[in-house]
Each structure stands twice: as structure tokens, then as C-alpha cells.
Fold these 4 entries.
Entry 1:
Amino acid sequence: MLPSLSSFKPSENYILAVDDSLDNLILLQTLLEDEGYEVELAGSGAEALQKMSERSPHLILLDVMMPQMDGYEVTRRVRQNPRFPFIPILLITAHDRSSVVEGLDNGADDFIRKPFDMEELLARVRSLLRLKHSIDEREAMLQQREDFVSRLTHDLRTPLVAADRMFHLMQSGSFGELPTDMLTALTSIIQNNQNLLSMVNMLLEVYRHDAGQKKLTFVACDLPALLQSVVEELSPLAEEKNLDLVIEFAPQGAEKALVEQVLGDQLELRRVFTNLIGNAIKFTDEGQVRVRVRSVADEAGADSTRWAVIDVMDTGPGIPPEDLAEVFQRFRQGNHRRAGSGLGLHLASRIVEAHRGSLTVQSEVDQGSCFTVKLPAANAVAIA
């Protein structure tokens, strides 16, 4: 159980005071330690950053005017360093409003002007420490929730896999021949169990990507072969609905070169395209689903970056404009009767981002949708 904000004591707070004046540092240290705070001193911006890398403070009291590295630069570096958690920064300045605005724009959370009133300083310290503990508590709760989801999906997956194997043994007659009506019911049970297992597996994959725990194996992937394989695998679903499922390769540019290889995790990329093409088939009742592969370059010249661009286009119902901005959010379910768990597109987006690519969508109601995957090329092969 997490402690309430009111339960935090000054002794549980570590404050880093930064100033090039030793007299100012001693004054701050005496004032804060008298209140029960643990205080560390730094005489320069560089020393402060070094101390922060060794131990993260709960609050930074930062003088603006310091030689070599001023308070603005220290603030920028703290905010730009992803290794640092959120640390409130209280700027101490003797200057005018414009310097305060610059400090706040660079990421500081509050300021106080010299000469400062002792009680006002302590009040601002308490306020920023409450903010720090509030954010830490929220992040801890989010982490607990993510850990719970991870454990839950693991615990659910084991009996679902065991049940799936048992059901298939029953279906194959391993435990004796079953009546026709029981086989029919068993087939439905197997399908429902597999759907649930698929959802649990997807939730687990989403957690791994969101938590940064997913390990990708990057190799040179034959993109046309990968896409052709996915299209062939999903063709029976399209045929059941009398849909045309086509794939076309459309090189663009002066050299007419098609990107044939991308550097990526083949299994994860397959998951992306299976989801996008499968969704297109699922939501399209008539017409076609078209997969178009093309190449683009950022700019002309030898140093230009070439990209493989894959468009998955359908003639389905389209996505309402108000839903487009949130279509890749986790657990975002559309209003369509066939809407799924809201995990597939979120997972596809995270996978593509992990490959330093992008996934975007364009859609018009009653006209269809086009999902576009853009991936950096491993190399390009000229075609006739």
C-alpha cells in the first residue's frame, strides 16, 4: 500500500541546493536542516549534475546566475535527460520578470526572488515536495497496475493453453468418439477459447512493448515475400466474404527502385501486417482490400533516406473523424459492431515505432480507410 501524501516527513526528502556562493549555500543548508530536511550542496552546475547522476534529489534549489553553466542551462539538461525522474526545480533569482519567464520556459517549476523571505521559501519548498510525491505516487500506482496486468495475463494464459490442447484431443477422438452435436458444440468452445487466448497474448505483448521489456531481433527482412505470405494466409478470409485481396508493387522515383529489404524483427512485422490486413478484411463487406508497396526518399542526393511504404486500403465503412485521433490508443474501441479489444492497432503502432517507422491512417466515412506503414529501408534493389 502506498503512503498518503500527508505521511511524508521532511527527513524523507533529499534537497540539492546549487549556488556558486558558499555563504548562500550555508544559509540554505542551515534553514532547511533546521526543518528536518536532508540537504546536499553543489557549488556549480556541473557539480550539481554529477551529484544528481549519483543520487536523484526530491527537489533542486537552483541559483540562476552562476559562471560557466547558469541555472537555465542546468534546468535544460535536467529536463532533457531521460534518466532523471521528475524533479521539481525552484529557481532563485535576483533578476526581473523576463529572467523568470525564461527559467519557467526551460522547465523550472517555481521561482523566488532574492532577497527572499524565509517563510515564503519554506512554503514553496513544501509545495514542490507535495507535487513531487504526488507524481511519484501516481507513477507507482501506474506501475503496480501494469505489473498486475502482466501477472494476470501470465496466469490466464497457462490454463487457456492447457484447455486448448485438451479440447483438440477431444475433437480428434483421443478420448473416444463424440456425438455430432457435441462435436459442433466443442468446435464453438475451441473457437471461443482461442479468441480469448489471442486476446490474452496480445495484452501481454502490449504490456511488454509499453514497459520497454520487448526484445526485438533485427535482421534484413524480405519485405515483398513477407507481405505476400501474409496475403496468402489471409486470402481464405477474403474469399469467404467474396472480397478481392490484391497486392501490388509500385516503385516510385526517378530510379524506379523498390525497397525490398527492411531491417526489422520479422515476427513482429508479420504481426503488424496481419493485424492491418486482417482488420481491413474484417470490416469490409464488399469491394476489395488492396495492399500497395512503394518506395519514397526524403530528399534527392546520396545521403537521402529511403523508405518502404506499405498502404493497406479497404472499401469498408471508414472511421468517423472524431475517432481518427484516438484510433491507435490502447483499449480504444470503435463503435462498429465488429470492434475488437482495442489492442491490435495500439500494438501495431508500438511495433512500428520500435522499428523507427510510422503508422498513420486516412479515412472517410462510407468510402474506406488507408493505413500506411513507413519503414526505413535496409537497402534498395533496382527493378526493371
Note: The mean pLDDT is 84.
Entry 2:
Amino acid sequence: MKKIQMVDLSGQYQEIKDQVNSSITQILETSAFINGPEVHAFQKELETYLGVKHVIPCANGTDALQIAMMGLGLKPGDEVITADFTFAATVEVIALLQLTPVLVDVYPDTFNINIEALEKAITPKTKAIVPVHLFGQCANMDAILALAEKHNLFVIEDNAQAIGAKYLSKNGKKSMAGSMGHVGATSFFPSKNLGCYGDGGAIFTNDDDLAHIIRGIVNHGMYERYHHDVVGVNSRLDSIQAAVLRAKLPKLDGYCEARRNAARAYSRAFKNQQHIVTPVTVNNCEGICDVCDCHVFHQYTLKITNGKRDALAKYLNENDIPCGVYYPIPLHKQKAYVDGRYREEDFPVTNQLVKEVISLPMHTELDEEQINHITKMVIGFVNG
């Protein structure tokens, strides 16, 4: 059996090796390291893939979120609502910009932001909602967009984990994750479904004026060289990373399907296990349906309900099966974001999830032998 990895980037590289190596060599020979042809070509190709008017590449996913908020003109003291159960980058940029983060609970099945809690958190100071499309599927965008319209709020989609996923609206329209709000942001960190070989990110929007503002912000606030019209940052996707992403983008749908197939195999093996809760999809299909496109399984996350999660993680790691706990501490309990406004009774789901969730190896190169071994080890320990 091949060595089990949480993400097998080396195996994935073999299929795109010739294209990646050739493109990087050309960049080295032409010295077009910054804003070169590869960056512009990738931008256009991603616009086409997502069905959006504007993609603005940047240095990483955290920058993408920060720049999106800067572009919308949010001011210190403005409240921004997001999920308590997610990676810290989402709330980090809110705090960095001296905005006021407002954390709310999530649903126990999809792990995405709870709409009732979101609506309850809206105040006259609220200016934006940041739904996080966690682990590979979209939050309830119909409800979020309706609330945003009702209260005149911006919607900033954190699409760091769900690029390639599709969202089926109540009206029957399918949209790509990240394309529905006023602006979307994503990360191209190497382990993402669409990942580069370093850091990278991008911002998406269909708003021409917002796109123009953001293009200046990513380049020191310049729209004309040495004319600094707004306060900006230095945040660019370099040409080498763009070349890697160009090689991967045409394969993204295939990568996502390979992940779904691995997820299907996991879920079949764990079916009817009393203490193991498998992931559900937002469309409430029975399992992961044959035509699934709503979940791209950036992570395959179980809930272990008999109190053995921490012991299971230790056992798997000791037996050369990598795993992850995403996330072990609620954001409202992190030292940097503790706030007297938060009450524990407002976060019953997140407070329980941090004790139960565990993510198993998930990538495009997982094979049947590896999945069988992983699932047997998990089932044996949980039931032992």
C-alpha cells in the first residue's frame, strides 16, 4: 500500500509535470515574474470557469478577504457577521480593519452559518455578511442574499474551501460558489482543490466599479503609475503560481469528482455506524448522489459521538494515518477574539462540534486499498 497522506500533491503533480515544468522554464527565461502573461491568462480562464465578469488575482486568500472588505468601503466600527466555526482568517481580517466581528453559530449537519442566528445578529451597525462555504459546499445563499437585500448589506463569500462547487437556488438556477454575493474571495494554498505551489488567492465580482477599486487596492492604491489614489496593499499572484494554476484549472472538475468518489467510498464504509456521523450535502440527497456537484469535499469530516475523537486522532497518527481536527477551538474562545458580547448559550453547535469533528485524508490520489485501511482502523477503534 502507498504511504497515506493527508493531501498527495506529489502524486497529482505527475499528471501535469510536463506542462508545469515547461511553463516555469519559460517564465525563468523571459523573466516575466510579476504580472506576466501567465497571470493575465489565468485571470481570464478563471473568469470563464466561474462565470463572473472580473477576477482579480492576489497574494493569498486572507489578502483576498481583506481587500474585498477594503473595496466595499467598510469603516471602523461597522459590524460584519460571520461563522464561529471556521478558520481564523475570516475573522482576522475583520479585526485588522478595525471592523467589529460578530460571530454566530452554525448548523450541526452542513457546518455552515445558521440563518436564524445570522438574522438575530443583524443590528443597525451591521454592514456585511461573510458566509464561509465550509469544507466544500455553499452556505444557504438564497436566505443570505434575501437578508442582505432586506437590510441593505454586502455579502462577501469566503470561498477558500469550495471552489468548483455549484449552488442550486430555489428558482432552479445553478451558480458557482463565490459568484453570488457582491464579491467573493478564494485561496490557492497548495492543499486547496485548486492549489498552487506557494501562496495565492483571488477576488471575484460582477460589479465593474468594485473591480476597478480592487485592482487599485492590490497595487498600492495605484490606477496610474506613482499616482496613489487610495490606501492600498501589495498583493499579487506571481507568474509561476499562475502557471501552476493554469495547468490545474482545466482538471478542477475532475479533481472534485475524484474527491467525491473518495467521499462516497468513505461514507459507504461508515454507513450504519452508531457513533460515526458522515457528511451530508446541502441538497439533502441520500448520501452523495451520482450527479453531485454541490460538494467538492475539500475536507471529509466525520463527527465521532461517543467521546473518542481525541483518542482516535492520536491512534490514527500513531498508525501513520494523518488526520486533522478542523477546528479544535471556537473563534469566540480564541484569545484574540474574546468579547464580552458573546454568550456560551449562543454557540451550542460550535461548542459541540469542536469536541466531535475529525477530518480524514482527502485528495485526488486516494485509492481503494488506502480507503479500506483507513475506514477499518477508524471503525475498529471507535467501536473498541
Note: Residues 9-30 form the longest helix (22 residues).
Entry 3:
Amino acid sequence: MLSAKKQNLLGLSRAKLNTLFNELGEKSFRADQVMKWIHQRGVTDIDAMTDISKSLRETLKERTEIRLPKIVEDFASRDGSCKWIIEVESGSKVEMVFIPESGRGTLCVSSQAGCSLDCSFCATGKQGFNSNLTVAEIVGQLWWANKNLGGYKDKLDRPVSNVVMMGMGEPLLNFNNVMEAVEIMMDDCAFGLSKRKVTISTSGVVPAIDKMKDYTDASLAVSLHAPNDELRSQIMPINKKYPIAELLRSVKDYMASLPDKRLPVIEYILIKGVNNHRQHARDLAKLLKSLPCKINLIPFNPFSLSDYQRPSGSSITNFRQILLDAGYTVTVRTTRADDIGAACGQLVGDVDDHTLRSDRHKKRAQYKSGKVFDEADNLAVMVDRL
């Protein structure tokens, strides 16, 4: 008979730790102690938790463990950014990226191995989809970043001040695990990050945005990338299910539910000849006039399975100026870590694809490059074009 799998303390929120200790006949403050040992001190050995009695430590070792995702590779960019590849329980590998800036350090966290949405400008979507990450695999990325950047040695200077759920995957399609992971990140007994400094980025899963207000008050970023439904549906298939009007309504409702005044960030990738014309900027300004927001322009970052190109600097400047003249706060995301394949839209990992989409994209790329296929290969390309 197989023994029951031990609970992973790394992925338990304070509420779930309270439940665990109540079952053990212990006081709820034990949950606070364990969270601080794991997330604030970086301890993964239950025996090292010296303010917990030996008998309770023995009980915890019988029923629980602290199991981290495994880092299999790391890369350092010339601009100071870092990328780590971690292996998750499904066998796939996902990527996380740390970006240091003046006065802050931002960690870009993955929520899924692959992605099912297949946005045309994103390398992750070309990998297909394998699995949702567990709470521990999401929180473990922040734990590892703190560990590798020296955060557990110097408690007064934590290297990660901001977390953005903008890595591999669509966070709101892994709703429960992402909500619980974000809760741990913001818990004062864990990482204690401000709700203003934890951002959930979504491609527009409207029903999930509608539910968010019951689970979190984290900040919100929305991948819009087009000023009308026709174009957005071409580059983001999710728009066919949740068109722009529904998406913006859900964003307004979520922002209205927050106790403080915050603005959502509208993310807009700029792709040469696709969505970067002056008229697109004017249409975008008109579209968003009833939604107080900040706009973040993201010049496209090339990758091997895409023919898209980055616009010229003057095109980006012109696009931004039209939005500025319309009264918006507009930033242009500086390309970081592209020398290690870690810029926005470039994360790929190593996904054991369950959708076969990755094979189709590879065949399409080979077809465009003029390679000769057999009959089955040609059929696959034709089907993918339909």
C-alpha cells in the first residue's frame, strides 16, 4: 500500500497552516512561526525550527515536508538580470526572471508549464500546454530568487520588492493556485509584499477577473495589444470568447472593488506593420477614455518561431506621443535580458506539450524556411492554417 503524500509546507497559506495545527491540537500561532522560518529565514529543515518543540517537529516531519522546485539551469544577463530554469513535478521546465532596477527588484513569475492561449506574439504559447504549477512551485520561485540573490542573509535588504505574474502561462487559468500563492507573497509572516507591488497580468479571462475581488486585492495588468476586436482576435484568440467590451467592463469592476485608488496597467505590444500605426494609437486613446489607466508600450522581442518584427524607434515615439497628447500616462518598457532569451514574450522553458501545438508551429516554421516535408508533414501544416 502506497503511503500518503506528505503536505508541502512551502505552498500552505496561513489559513491552511492554521487548519493543520488545529488538527494537531496546537495553537494557531504555530502557523506564524512556520511561515517565518520558511519564507523569511529561508529554512527548509524542520529540525532547524528551534522555537518549536522537538515532539511537534517530529510530528511535522512525519506528516509534512518542505519541497522546493528544482533549479536546473541559470543565466546572467549583461544588464544584471538573471534567469533561472526550474523543473516542476510534471517534468516540464519553466522560467523565472529577476530584473534589477534603481530602487527596486522585480521578479517575473511563471504560473503554468506552457500556455493554452496561443497569442501570436508570445514564445510561450508556441510551446503548447502541459500543466498548472502548484502553489509551492509558484511561491518557490520567489523563495529561490531571495535565496540566490542573498535575501535570506540580509533581512533588511530583500532583493525582490516587486512580483509580476507575467512569466509563462495565463495566471487566471490557474486561478486557485495563483490566488493562494499571491496570498502567501503578501502575508506579513511570509514575504510581506505590498498589494501595490504584486501584479497579476492576464490576457483577459473575464470570468476569472470577475472572481478576483473575492480572493485578492493585488494589482492588475491587462494584455490588450489591439484597439479593436477584429485585430485583437487575429493576434489573441481569447478575444473571440471574451471581446474587448466585456474585458474592459470586468477590469473596471475589479478596480472599483479595491479599497484604495489604483490604476490598472494596459499592456500593448508594438509589432511592426500589425498594430503600431498612428491610427491604432488614436483608436486606443478613444477606446480607453472611460477607463482610468496607465499604458505600458512593449516593443516586440523577436523569437525563432515568429516572423514579427520590432517597430522603429521613431514609430514607437510617435505612438507614445499620440497617447500622451490624449492625456494618458505612458511608459515604454525597456528591453531587458534579451541576450539570455528572457525579455518579455521570449520565455519558452521546456514543455512536455499535451496539445501538439508546439509541433505544428515548428512544422510551420520549417515550411516557411523552404524545407522539404513528407506527405504527413505537409498535411499537418495545411491543417494548422485552417
Note: The first helix runs from residue 14 to 23.
Entry 4:
Amino acid sequence: MCWIVTEGSVESGGGRLSDVVYDHTISLLEEENALLRKTVSQLKDDMDRLKRSPLMVCEVVTAKGGNAVIKMPNGNRFFVDILSSCGKLRPGELVFVEQKNLSVVKKASVSKKYNVEKFVIVEKPNVPWKEIGGLEEQIREIREIVELPLNKPELFEKVGIEPPKGVLLHGPPGTGKTLLAKAVATATNSTFIEIVGSELVQKFIGEGAKLVKEIFNMARQKAPSIIFIDELDALAAKRMDIGTSGEREVQRTFMQLLAEIDGFKGLGNVKIIGCTIRKDILDPAILRSGRLERHIFFPMPAKDARKEILKIHARAMNSSDIDMDKVIGLTENFTGAEIRAVCTEAGYFAIRESRSSVGTTDFINAVAKIKSKEEAESTEYVKMFG
């Protein structure tokens, strides 16, 4: 392209330069204007959203015509109007509700059900009876209460009695309560559903009770099953007349647990095992006949029981001439869990010295280490709490 310079203008083969510059400027301004209009529109939408009142999520109890009875998150119920755009509502559905006039605005596209397995541990344990030592009496009792009704229900039908719905395991921590529960689940080929009492009480009002309901529904679907509730005292402590909103939520969850145990659906091949170290603070309602009426106490293991536990855990270890009596003599007031820890520590002492076998000295050193750790934790506790 060649430029031709004349008086008062600059021209090219394609036209005047001023026209080209003008057209380019107009194009840029139009693009910028369109971008600004889009930004203003987005800001207006944001302002409108900020001015709106937040909606509540409620549950439909009944619905007929243009009205419905809804249940608020706090449990209160109201008779309200339904906007025509909502369509037909069914009991149990979740809906969005205006806070000012409580009118139902639209259906909520959220599920009322929980992913229960986020809150519980579901497994098929593999703990044979031979892996449990020093608990012969406790094994006999739990087999009668849980294993016999699940494996041979016809015996109870012939006699004409109802087997217990559940059992309470209580005693100091580390004495084998959870292990025994898993062993009976193994013996009955049951699904083992493990939950922690404190986790049943959720942050939001009413959530804990709904979670209990879903857990029992899942247990019925996976039957035969065992619901193992650890830290039962966090959920089923003695009730008080007045408390905080958190305490009232615990009570609602506890009442739902009792309702599931006593419910019209029946438990069938579902057994409940509660576990606590504080039986003294449990509400009598959970312990009465027809609920967790059978109680099994787990004491600190005596000398013979500790020796049996040590033999079980040392069975698979590559050891030579271990003086069991000498080691056991040093483990007074040790729980089964602590004796298992002794075996693990003894193995580490051998590994540190590049040995493939474990001796009596390793076990003695392991006992000393476990004791020193307990003493340090005890001292720290005293410093913190007095």
C-alpha cells in the first residue's frame, strides 16, 4: 500500500486515514461499553440477591390444595400457604419457606437422607474367639445374649420367649469391650456398625435424631447386623430438667434411640451393644427390661488373664525362651491393650538392634517404657487439671 500526501489530508489506496482511525476508535468504545453494561447488570443482580431474605428449609408434614403443614428445623409446626409454582407436594419432601410469612416458595432439591457411612464404621470383622484371652466369663455371657439368638432363633421360638435386644459392656478402657463385640459379630457373620455416641449429636438441631433413624434403617437392610455404640454415656446420660440447647439436642437424639429400640418396625436380626466406662451416669431408661437389660462387666485382668493375653499376642512373634512369669509380674494393673503394646515395643527393641528374635530383656524394657509413658501422661494431667 502506498500513501499519497496532499494538502490538508493523508490518503491511501483504501481511503482517508482519519476515517480508519475513527472507525477503529468507535469499535473499541463499543466493546468497552458492552463490557461495562455486562458488569453493571451483574452488580444489579448481586444487589438484588443481597436484598432478599434468606429462605428456610422445612419438611412437609401434610399438604392439601394450596396449603400445607410444615415442620420447622426446631420441631415447631405451622399451617402455611403454598405458591402455585410449587406444584404438588408430598409428605416428607423438603421445601424452601419465606421467613416473614412462612409461605412455601419452592421445592428444595436436596436430599433428606444422610450418607450414613460418613458417620459410622461398617465392616465385616474377622476376630475369632481364640484371639481373646482372659475373658472366659464375658465370652460365655455375650454368646448367650447375642450369638445364640442370631444363629439359633428357633430355640427361643420353641420355648416361647423373646431374646434380649441388646447388651451393655462396661468397665475400664482397654479391657477388651470392642474386641469382644467384633468377635461376636465374626461368630454370627454379622455386619458390624460402629458409632461413637458423641458423634450422634450433630451441630444442627434435629440432625442427631434423624441420623439415628437412618443408622437403624441401614442396620435392618444389612441384617444380620450389630450396632455397636461406643461412648454410650455421651448420648444416654441421666436427663436433667433444664439445660442448654445442646443438652436438649442430646435428649432428642437419646429419645430417638429409645424409640428405635422400642419401635413398631422391630429389630429382627439387629442387636445393639452399648459400651461405656461410666455406667453410673447412664439414664435408667436405657438399662430397663426390653432395652439394654443385660450388663457385662470387664474388670482389669488378673495375673492369669494377663499371662493368657501375653501368650496370644506373643504367639506370632519370633521369640526364644521368654520368662513369661517374670514379665507378667511386672505388668500389674496393665490392661489387655497395654499388654499388646508391650509386645509391639518388645519387637521394636529387637529391630533397633538388628535382631530377628525377641527375648525376655526386650519385654522387660518394653514394660518399663509403657510404665514411664503412663507416668508422664499422669503428671501432665495433674499439671493441667490439678
Note: The chain has eleven helices and 14 strands.
